Amino acid sequence: xxxxxxxxxxxxxxxxxxxxxxxxxxxxxxxxxxxxxxxxxxxxxxxxxxxxxxxxxxxxxxxxxxxxxxxxxxxxxxxxxxxxxxxxxxxxxxxxxxxxxxxxxxxxxxxxxxxxxxxxxxxxxxxxxxxxxxxxxxxxxxxxxxxxxxxxxxxxxxxxxxxxxxxxxxxxxxxxxxxxxxxxxxxxxxxxxxxxxxxxxxxxxxxxxxxxxxxxxxxxxxxxxxxxxxxxxxxxxxxxxxxxxxxxxxxxxxxxxxxxxxxxxxxxxxxxxxxxxxxxxxxxxxxxxxxxxxxxxxxxxxxxxxxxxxxxxxxxxxxxxxxxxxxxxxxxxxxxxxxxxxxxxxxxxxxxxxxxxxxxxxxxxxxxxxxxxxxxxxxxxxxxxxxxxxxxxxxxxxxxxxxxxxxxxxxxxxxxxxxxxxxx
Length: 424
What we know:
The protein is an alpha+beta fold. The chain has helices at residues 3-15, 17-25, 35-41, 59-67, 117-122, 146-151, 161-167, 170-182, 188-197, 206-217, 223-232, 234-238, 247-256, 261-267, 274-283, 288-305, 311-320, 325-338, 344-357, 371-378, 384-400, 405-422, and strands at 30-33, 51-55, 72-74, 82-87, 90-96, 98-102, 109-113, 132-134, 140-141, 154-155, 185-186. The strands form 3 sheets. A 7-stranded mixed sheet has the order 3-4-5-2-1-8-9. A two-stranded antiparallel ribbon has the order 6-7. α16 packs across α18. The chain is elongated and about 90 Å long. It starts with a helix and ends with a helix. 39% of the residues are buried.
């Protein structure tokens, strides 16, 4: 093992030492598992991240063990064998050794507890995640060759892929994330099983599918992961609206935009109407705020693509933009560059916007008169004519920039006089 890996494992063990003493004193074994071990093997300690552990202690016993030292305990996952806690300032998720599988007709996992850590590791998703470190002595357990697979950039399952993906079909989608995040290449058995078992994703709760897709999307470069989704046909199961896209383009555009949920989701739909974005994200049960932001970015990109860069039209588009205009410009420029589209129009729009910002509050353009003031100036009763007058003032500010109250009142009176003169 490299010096960096040894140092990372030592750091992980040090972070869990207080918890390890509690379990040893209670006569139970405690093992570090999951991402902290995977990353430590590659020489990186996940400082500040929650640490995952597995133990032979049952959940009620875990709760009793940590109660004396933990500053916080949470039990939302207890029915699945998981107790969360904070010990010595470090957050842990402690799960009883288990075997988890899906009933063929249910979205919920069936959990059974076990006594043996190696059985627990065998039921994990991939060999690179099926390693553990014994907190009692620091021994690395790697019964399925995870270290070698990391070194060889290989993605395999501890058991036959058909068994692993049958236990939890979401693992097929999770494979895409590890392919993209760690540069792993799936072995032939994994690819073949995903192609054959893709329909099993139908039993997985849509929220879990959405969350896994978002984890993939938020990677620095999700391109290889999307390549896997297209190559295996999973894209038709999870995002059918983009299944006909060029896989390389999908990944390229996603990698180009800001690594935040709204722009990354929006990047998948740069060639679609706004309604398609909203419908797809609602189907994935995304939050209303995310649906609005992602659809707004796509809508703004379409508007900016054909925008007239005159001051009038820049003011109008900024006012009507469904998302902050700077976010829309950044998204549109990144997408256009990834798609090899011209960006000169976006540059002109940005230049006009910058010029306007020097002399006016173009981002928050208020009206010089409110409804009551319009009624007073024109001696109008409440009604549609007031709204019409305000709309006229809004258009006037688009055309000429900010007006003061006197200028606005004079403009309204001139308009009324002109209307009178034009009447037969």
